[in-house]
Specification:
globular; Aldehyde Dehydrogenase, Chain A, domain 1; Aldehyde Dehydrogenase, Chain A, domain 2
């Protein structure tokens, strides 16, 4: 398992795989730890989770450097990622007890309520694009609920995975509360089928999600899937085009354009398409490309060469089918120039598939109704942005959108306070907020009569 710097393709470090015996020991430790940890008080868990938040902030520069070296995101974005992880830890440290307090329900019983109790050992399968954030947004609510967790992280970010395990241990959590399994994807089925694993959370590709969900289905285990997205960014006629273009660049280019919730299809009203496109390209040209360790860099490489090669193939196929290259399109190793194409139609990879990199397809809409129809014409359903000065119209149209989230005059983003997840092939279940912490608990009905009835 190799960690390679995508900026210069130099080997950072090679990590040994866990043996089958090592994986089994870790699972057994997680299970035995759970038997005690589930009885711990919220106050005890909260104090340790707050220590994690402090650790993240105190060592933000160190952790951010690892993120940038392993997957190439600009160092300033890596620092923001670490800060967001501290936020989600604080959020659940403060809110978990409230979210999991018994719900009193009036029935014909003397007393009846729903108790929320931990399930056991939960498996997390996490991707490389946000090596810390994806893990902590799973781990904070899962652990605060009283579960223990094991992580199967992407092979190219094992340095990040090991750091996270160390952070939990340093905060005072028992060794079996959070552990990293250093194994490749081909060994996942044995882990998922292990009876110690009670449920799984997967963030990643459709292929990864469906593979884990298929096994969990056979084993009758709960899953939460947060998979791909092809988020639409709709610009209506009445939008402030200067501001819309600036927001569009941010929405497309965040995390070197490698985010499931990045804007990937720009649906523009025909009357303003030419002007919006001009402004959009001009703002893309202003971005500084370079070494992601440089704090002035805004665009770094993609995380791996093969990812850049796949994006190049999708771009070329779209052009061969009639899309027009307006700007960019050049690739060298993992570096991919920000790119804009127009004349994009359904049936092209640029419309139908997820473009996980800095290619922005411009799609023309002749009416508001067609814009929403094009927005929904996808197998994905993660999030959408509507840019307009008519808020009432946008709120009305949002009811016709099939995605898990609609953001009006803002890019789609995750927030610990709001549920996060998609529909269709973007997955199911929710992370974050009160909804997220309820995914991996047993909602147990307790029904009490004070005495036996005649």
């Amino acid at each position: 398992m190799k960690s390679i710097n995508p900026y210069d393709l130099k080997l950072i470090r090679e990590y040994p795989e866990d043996s089958e015996e090592s994986v089994q020991r870790k699972l057994e430790l997680a299970n035995s730890t759970f038997q005690q940890f589930r009885k711990s008080f919220f106050k005890e868990r909260s104090e340790k989770m707050l220590k994690i938040a402090s650790d993240l902030r105190d060592n933000a520069s160190k952790y951010a450097k690892t993120l940038t070296l392993e997957m190439g995101k600009p160092i300033t974005e890596a620092q923001a990622e670490v800060e967001k992880c501290a936020w989600v830890c604080e959020y659940y440290a403060e809110k978990a007890e409230e979210f999991l307090s018994p719900t009193i329900i009036k029935t014909d019983a003397a007393r009846s309520y729903v108790s929320y109790e931990p399930l056991g050992v939960i498996l997390a399968v996490m991707p490389w694009n946000f090596p810390f954030w994806q893990v902590f947004r799973f781990a904070a609510p899962t652990v605060m609920a009283g579960n223990t967790a094991v992580l199967k992280h992407a092979s190219n970010v094992q340095g990040s995975a090991q750091l996270i395990e160390e952070i939990f241990r340093r905060a005072g959590f028992a060794e079996g509360v959070f552990q990293n399994l250093a194994i490749p994807s081909k060994r996942m089925e044995d882990v998922v089928t292990n009876p110690i694993i009670k449920a799984a959370s997967v963030t990643g590709s459709e292929k990864a999600g469906s593979a884990v969900a298929e096994v969990c289905g056979r084993e009758i285990k709960t899953t939460v899937l947060e998979l791909g997205g092809s988020n639409a960014f709709v610009i209506f006629e009445d939008a402030d085009l200067e501001k819309a273009a600036a927001l569009a660049v941010k929405a497309r280019m965040i995390n070197n354009a490698q985010s499931c919730i990045a804007a990937k299809r720009f649906i523009v009203a025909a009357k303003v398409e030419e002007e919006f496109t001009r402004l959009f390209i001009n703002k893309l040209k202003e971005l500084k490309e370079g070494d992601p360790m440089d704090e002035e860099t805004q665009v770094g490489p993609l995380a791996r060469v093969d990812l850049a090669e796949k994006l190049e193939e999708q771009l070329q196929k779209s052009i061969d089918q009639g899309a027009q290259l307006l700007y960019g399109g050049k690739r060298k190793d993992a570096h991919f120039q920000p790119t804009v194409i127009n004349k994009v139609q359904p049936g092209m990879p640029a419309f139908d598939e997820e473009l996980f990199g800095p290619v922005a397809p411009i799609i023309t809409a002749q009416s508001d109704e067609e814009a929403i129809q094009l927005l929904n014409q996808t197998s994905f359903g993660l999030g959408a942005t509507l840019v307009t000065s008519d808020i009432a119209k946008a709120e009305k149209l949002s009811k016709d959108i099939e995605d898990g989230a609609v953001f009006i005059n803002e890019l789609v983003k995750s927030d610990p306070r709001l549920p996060f997840g998609g529909t269709k092939r973007s997955g199911y279940g929710r992370e974050l907020s009160q909804h997220g912490i309820h995914e991996f608990v047993n909602a147990k009905t307790v029904y009490i009569n004070t005495s036996l009835k005649d």
